[in-house]
Amino acid sequence: MTHPSVSVVIVSRGRPEALSVCLTGCMQLHYDPFEIVVVADPAGVAAAQALPFARQIKIIGFDDANISAARNVGINAAAGEIVAFVDDDAVPEPTWLTHLTQAMQQHNVVVAGGYVRGRNGISYQWKGRTLDAMGHAVDLPISGLDTVVVQPTPEQCAKTEGTNMAVRRDVLVDIGGFDPAYHYFLDETDLNMRLAKAGYACAIVPRAQVHHGFAANRLRRADRVPTDLFDIGASWAVFQRKFIPQDKRRDHWRAIRRSERRRAERLMVSGHIEPRAVTGLISRLDQGYGQGIARRMGDGHVDKTPNSPFKKIAPLTKNVAYMTARRAGVARARAEARRRVKNGEVMTLIILLPNALYHQARFHPDGYWEQRGGLFGKSSRNQMLIKFWRFADRFCAEIQRIAVIRGGSV
Q1: pLDDT given for residue 191 in this prediction
Q2: How far apart are CA 78 and CA 304, in angstroms?
Q3: 279, 294, 309: which is the final residue of a domain?
Q4: How far is it, in rounded angstroms, from Cα 53 to Cα 35?
Q5: Are both 276 and 402 inside the same structural domain?
Q6: Residue 225, in any domain of the structure
Q7: 399 in any annotated domain
Q8: Are residues 163 and 39 part of one domain?
Q9: Cα–Cα distances in Å, from 193 out to 78, 101, 131, 217, 254?
Q10: What average pLDDT does range 342-366 have in this prediction?
Q11: Where is the domain boundary, 160, 179, 212?
Q12: What residue numbers bound the domain in which 258 lies?
């Protein structure tokens, strides 16, 4: 099967270190042909340009705090048949593009999304979800790893996550790309609703996985506590004007406002914010809603012809390999992993400790995957709390579990 060309678009603002890690991971994608388009603020541009492979990627400066407008800039520079999106605080598995594009070809769909793992590298932030007519996301029950195609109806459509989704570029041109009225929040929800309205089905692809760090930004802390709800209020106002009948908007807004207040109160009770912050957050939510009612919308535009030629990434990786280490050998194993990454391998280092601690996994800034946990601990949340293993058997079992997504074998 011939692979369609893919442009990976990454928007970055205020997170240059995370962007560097993201780009390092994207360079290990097992796919051909693909290109990388970075749309970033000055700090992000400097970070991208400092990477050893900077000449292989498209780097575009953009300093407006508007993720939808930034994504449209990226799409205009994207010359691939398919445009895939990943956040700057995320790293895709090496097989990510392969699974997304295979699903789009096999199921004749124009949009696809995958699963997103959280910052511990094990649990999922999101799997498959759908949207109801009010814009609320609902979990989609999916068993196993087979692709599921969601056909749009007036009551629901598929929900893809902005950090793990792909859309045919010609379709993005037809529907006008992302709507810049959504500066932050609901940007991909709006896209999903418009794609569904145009009759397009969506593939949910469990094997297409991304690890998402949920790094801090100007509107939330690193622990995911919101610091400002203005843009959330503004985005809901825009969404209402586009998709919700006039006679249902008041009750819809009351429900949103009530939900956000309850969230703020829970954070206050748990000690994450002070009592006075609750009033401040809801006040900013209301201010944003008022501004969103008057905000111009529908100004998204994507040029039919990309503004730059396809910039194919030269494959850097040779094979997927796995290593293991006990506590005493971690430093030596990490040095070996770094050496092999420089030699073009996709490396996974599994550190097994003599205890029953839960496992965690991450993409290391030095370019290799690292999983760390107890020899007898859980590496998947549906496993037994404690299970006794021999060291070699546990290492083989972990390779078999990971290789389903990452590739390689025992």
Answers
A1: 97
A2: 11
A3: 294
A4: 12
A5: no
A6: no
A7: yes
A8: yes
A9: 23, 21, 8, 26, 22
A10: 95
A11: 212
A12: 230-294
Residue indicated by tokens 């295979």: 102
CB-CB contact of 12 with 19 (8 Å): yes
Q: Can you say how many angstroms the Cα of residue 267 is from the centroid of all Cα atoms in its chain?
A: 25
Q: Are strands 137-139 and 129-132 parallel, antiparallel or unpaired?
A: antiparallel
Is 385 part of a structural domain of the chain? yes
Quick one: pLDDT at residue 410? 62
b (16+ CB within 10 A) / e for 52-76? eeeeebbbbebeeebbbbbbbbbbb
Instruction: Please tell me the predicted confidence (pLDDT) of residue 317.
Output: 66
Mark whether 243 and 175 lie in a shared domain: no
2 or 172: which leads in pLDDT: 172
Q: Residue range 41-52: average pLDDT? A: 98
**254 and 337 inside one domain:** no
What value does the mean pLDDT take over residues 387-397? 95
User: Which pLDDT tens digit goes with each residue over 253-299?
Assistant: 999 999 999 999 999 999 999 999 999 999 999 999 999 999 999 88
Q: What are the tokens at 163?
A: 């950090």
Give the total number of structural domains in the chain.
3
Q: What is the CA radius of gyration of the chain?
A: 22
Contact present, 11 and 70 (Cβ < 8 Å): yes
Q: Are 361 and 121 in contact, with CB atoms under 8 Å apart?
A: yes
